[in-house]
Every structure is written in C-alpha cells, then in structure tokens.
Amino acid sequence: MFKQSIVAFVLLVLASSLLHAHDRAITGVVTKVDRRNIEVKSGQTTSTVALDSRTTYRKWTIGKLTQQDRDSRFEDLKIGSRVRIDLTEDEPVTAKAVWLVQSFFKETEYVHLKNSAR
Questions:
Q1: Domains of the chain
Q2: 94: Cβ–Cβ under 8 A, 6 or more apart, which residues?
Q3: Fewest CB atoms within 10 A around its CB: which of 19, 39, 67, 93?
Q4: CA–CA separation, 57 vs 40, rounded Å?
Q5: Where are the alpha helices (DSSP H) in 1-118?
C-alpha cells in the first residue's frame, strides 16, 4: 500500500509539472489598451500582447469561491486593471483569454481581515 501511494504521488507530481510547463501566461497591470493590443507591466517588465477576434474576456473574482459571474467584455479593461493573459500556442504574442482579476473584498475589508488574522 505504501509503495502504491508513493508511485501515485510521483506520477501526480510529474503530470502537474508537465501541464504547468505548457502554461503560457502573462500576469500584471494594464498600462495601455486598445482594440488591437494590450500592454501589461509585471515587475520591471512590460509586455505587449495582440488582441484579435478569437480573444475571450473573463472575470476572476478573488475571495468569492461560488456563484461568480465570469463573463466580461473588452470594455471592462481599464488602465490600472489587474489581468492574467493566457497566450495562444501558435502565436506567443496573441491573447487567447484575458482574465480581469478583481477582489471580492473592498480595500477596507481586506485590511480589516489582514489585521484580524495576526
């Protein structure tokens, strides 16, 4: 039983690392956006990614686990928005999906929760 558990664990780690190796995404803050391109700053790096008719727009609300409305539109993107951009496999500079990252908590609620956790 112990050997089977070890083998299952090793296979799980290998499978997750292989899947993670193909993860092509950019995460950061929008610095410029128009219908054809989005510019995202992540740390000291700024990346420009092309947008096209195949690009989908989704919402990801942090802190809300259920009943999320994930639909979003291009018009929801604004300078200063936090995003995660999934890139296409064949065109590394073209966005497959743009995830608009939002917080479920208001800033004051987040500070209160953070302070009460100490």
A1: 23-116 (2.40.50.320)
A2: 49, 50, 51, 52, 55, 87, 88
A3: 67
A4: 15
A5: 2-21, 107-116
Which string of b and e fits 23-33 if b means at least 16 CB within 10 Å? eeebebebeeb
d(CA 51, CA 95): 6
Kindly indicate the confidence band of residue 17, based on its pLDDT and cuts at 50, 70 and 90.
Answer: very low
How many residues are there in the chain? 118
DSSP state of 90: S
Q: What is the pTM of this model?
A: 0.66
Amino acid letter at 3? K
Chain CA centroid to CA 9, Å: 27
Long-range contacts from 27-31, C-beta under 8 angstroms, 24+ separation: 27/82, 27/83, 27/84, 27/85, 28/82, 28/83, 29/80, 29/81, 29/82, 29/83, 30/77, 30/78, 30/79, 30/80, 30/81, 30/82, 30/83, 31/79
The two three-digit tokens of residue 99, written as one number: 């995830």
